[in-house]
Amino acid sequence: MNRFQNKTVLITGAAGGMGSSHAHAFHREGANVVVTDIRAERGRALAAELGERALFVELDVTRKEDWDTAVRAAEAAFGPVSVLVNNAGVLSRSALIEDGDLSDWERVIGVNLTGTYLGIQALAPSLRAAGGGSVVNIASTSGHVGTALIAPYVASKWGVRGLTRTAAMELARDNIRVNSINPGVVNTPLITEPLHEGAAPVSDYYAPDAFAIKRLAEPQDISHLLLFLASDEASFITGSEYISDGGLLLGPALAAGQMQNRS
Q: Which of 23, 34, 88, 124 measures 20 to 30 Å from 46, CA to CA?
């Protein structure tokens, strides 16, 4: 299929585990892919791997001037952008709120929430010039609950949910749809590798056996949903939240055979 033939897609945090999966998925569907990331070496390597119809632009999502540069570069190479994927995100260090470091709060809110805000702000004129398009913000199941020890991350993802709905209302008349994907625990280095020296990876604290789907998500699980939401197949969907968590928010599932003796 070529659902994104002649369309340009800009992805933030594209050099990471989920981001690179998203970039490959859109590229396979015929899109021009603008790979953006603060990690220049990895971003350039991904764009080179994709080859034709790919461009790397170094982007710190917390800097408005970087966004302006990225939009100019994308439009110069491919024309107006049709899809924005606000994928860049960081986790917070584990700490009680009363023991938290303000700089960690500012870093996480800056990347996860302010970065998403600046992306929508910067890309809205380009999406409008393209005749409309789609914004997909990557939120989290952590934005639906309270989770001890990671207050900055939880707050940022709750914020992304509200920002998504507000942007959907503001941009609807310009034929721009805005939705969010809320992944559960995804098998990426963000989850499977320590955040800092001496810390255990998030995956050490998560056992999927009790839940409906007994595994971690793979990046392509999220990419498949992303392709749908960004495509014309979802043309009547905006301001919506799609949870892809294997049943995590549902809570523990029934054990196998637990209802066999029901009367």
A: 124
Domain that holds residue 176: 8-244
| 2 domain residue, yes or no | no
- Give per-residue pLDDT as tens, 16-46: 999 999 999 999 999 999 999 999 999 999 9
Residue 263 included in any domain:
no
Count structural domains, the chain. 1
CATH number at residue 201: 3.40.50.720
Q: Tell me the residue type at 202.
A: V
Pairing type for strands 54-58 and 32-37 reads parallel
Residues marked active site are found at 153
What's the chain's average pLDDT? 93
Tell the residue number behind the tokens 């960081």, with chain if given: 90
Q: Which residues pair with 58 in a beta bridge?
A: 37
* DSSP-assigned beta bridge partners for residue 177: 134
The answer to whether residue 78 is domain-embedded is yes
Within a domain: 257:
no
3-state SS of the chain: helix, strand, coil percent to 5? Answer: 50, 15, 40
Q: Which residue has the tokens 């789609």?
A: 134
The pLDDT confidence band at residue 177, using thresholds 50, 70 and 90, is very high
Spatial CB neighbours of 141, under 8 Å, sequence gap ≥ 6: 182, 183, 184, 243, 245, 248, 249
Please give the structure tokens belonging to residue 99: 């023991």
Of the CA atoms within 13 Å of residue 116, those in its CB half-sphere come to 30
User: Going by C-beta distance under 8 Å and a sequence separation of 6 or more, which residues neighbour residue 4?
Assistant: 26, 29, 30, 31, 82, 83, 230, 231
